[in-house]
Amino acid sequence: MPNYLRPSLIVHGGAWAIPDEAVAACQAGCRRALEAGWAILQSGGTAVDAVEASIVVLEDDPTFDAGIGSHLNRDGRVELDAIIMDGATLNAGSVASVQRVRNPIRLARKILESSEHLMFVGNGAEHFAVEHGIALCKPEELVIQRELDAWQECKKNNHSQEHHDMRSHGTVGAVARDTQGHIVAGTSTGGTCCKLPGRVGDSPLIGCGCYADIEAGGISCTGWGEAIMKIVMAKTAADFLRPPSGGAPLSSQKAAAAAVRLLAERAGGAGGLVLLDKEGRPGFAHNTPRMAYGYVAGDESFLVYV
Description:
The chain is an alpha+beta fold. The protein is built from 8 helices and 12 strands. Helix 2 (47-59) packs antiparallel against helix 3, helix 6 (225-231) packs across helix 8 (252-267) and helix 7 (233-240) crosses helix 8.
């Protein structure tokens, strides 16, 4: 492997019917995430550091359905899921249904680096966090007034999307390739509004909401989790990036589009994804009205779209 390769970074802030009034906030959040991750990659830092830094920015931004400001479940509590995966080793760290971790992507990374297990859930995940130096927060610290108001309206009038017009599928994610060619992907979410307690979607599952393999690329997904799980969308996109016997692989853009097309055709699902192929070339696709995403272009400018 060459001593130095041009790094690459792509992030997303969810695929859904983002209203006009939320576009600027989504763009600003994705740009800040790119700035955080790119500063690390540009200085020769690792892909895992860049992915973690980018996602922490998005988890700390209440614009998105991850970390603080996430949707509330049926019982009025936040339950968070996250994953980070190393494409060189195929190792991952995953966490689901945690209620007292401000930045679940940090806990996912700690699992990746400090445990023989790949996934922890609920109280077990929170115990692991404490044992490895990650402080817990109070559950109410993750709840913001906007989501509390929406939850209360749902309780009175039955769950309705109209109570959540400002955000619906704001799952966040990032994929990075560093100067050593290592590829890492990560995804973090608060899940769906008014979900049943204990519900886990695609986001923290290897191959569903996230996948990374240095031989193919790295992918982070967003959208209707139950449908994404049915087609194992992140791994499916990675397979589209692999060259078939005697043929050429799909381009990064065509692989992304093919995976999202399969999501609609086979699972009747709505969502999107961002990816980097093994050469660091970005790809992105969605079948929702909008998706918030951004990547670093060849001239190192930040391109951000909603």
